[in-house]
Amino acid sequence: MNYRRKISFILLALMSCSLLLTGCWDQVEVNDLAVVTMTGLDLTDENQLELSVNIARTSSQQPQENSDSSSGQLTGKSVILSTTGNTLAEAVSKLQQQLSRQLFWGHNEIIIFGEKLAKEGIAEHLEFLLRHPETRERANMFISIGSAKEVLSLAPQIEHYVADDLLEMAKLQTGLNITLKELMQMMISKSQAAVIPCLIIETKQDHQQSYPFIHGSAILKKGKLAGLVDSSTTRGIMWARNELDRGTVTISPENSEGYISFQLLSSSTEVIPYIHGDLWRITLRIHTLDDIIENTTDLDLSVSKHIEELEMELEDDIKRRINKALTVAQEQMNADIFQFADAFYRKYPNIWKQNKDRWSDIFTKLDVVVEADAKISRPGGTGKSILKPNQE
């Protein structure tokens, strides 16, 4: 009797385990997929949306035939396809109709908006991207100065695909690194303002090759392009938003000719909101730890006094960059790209609710105090520059 019970228990356990097994009825072979690695969105002269995609090409895959609504272009290890539509969903549907493989968006790591489209607004196109189940929320977002399609058509500089080049640039923090999820969070925040890195195309001297690279950033207000800022201002934005973890800062000391370059080891920014009556204030406290990696001045960096002076000058440089970014955001564009509104909402929810309709006016007059604390960890392998024999 016990033997029968044991056998019944084993059979029941095996049958229960089989319920957890998965089948292959809905499997899709890799050879049946058109893997999208990069997407570009532009606005045509006819006011239609132009969708361009970069599809990874296998050895057996060939570019599609040109047609009235879709074009194919072979670029290295990828195929560039484009089509137009009234909406992004319609453009995707048209593109799928002309492909022998199923579009797969799970590896789409780069999404680029053309400058013309960004001026008209990108919110409705984000709706499709965020709703589609295959879209990666970690995809990096860019705005192209010019056409997004042109960026897709460029040959990669070092990596196998242009998308990989741009992805690695973003990781190295040569500029802002904004994902689809972060862009969505900024656009639905209390400030409804966002900032995205910009792409420009650089042509080599021989005019044979052109490559995209990150230069400056674009400021969006309520989903529309409000203006562009340079790389120096972007660095100030990154400091204020607590998004700067690495990088190089070069200053020219006041009391010495030449330059000193610092490598940023770590950085943190604390945002402190304060309200008292009609006074609205934000205090930014920045703490950085740096190494000196180059010295072309006459300063002897083994002298502690010189190190302290350099720390103060580095702090002044940080304040200058952040204040420049604040001037652009408050006075020129009236766009709260620093998410100060959310900081006030979290600390003073009741006061915020009473004044949220006035935030646009409050932001332009907002008192922002910038405090910087820079520490030099190591002055380098030698205190004196080997090229400057007469040093102080």
TrEMBL record:
Every Spore germination protein N-terminal domain range: 26-199
Entry GO CC: membrane
Location of this chain's protein in the cell: Membrane
Keywords attached to this entry: Germination, Lipoprotein, Membrane, Palmitate, Signal
Its membrane topology: Lipid-anchor
Signal sequence interval, chain numbering: 1-21
Alphabetical list of InterPro entries matching this protein: GerAC_N, Spore_GerAC-like, Spore_GerAC-like_C, Spore_GerAC_C_sf
PROSITE patterns hit by this protein: PROKAR_LIPOPROTEIN
Highest taxon in the source lineage: Bacteria
Pfam families: Spore_GerAC, Spore_GerAC_N
One GO term of the biological process aspect: spore germination
Family to which this protein belongs: Belongs to the GerABKC lipoprotein family.
Entries under NCBIfam families matching the protein: spore_ger_x_C
Protein name, per record: Ger(X)C family spore germination protein
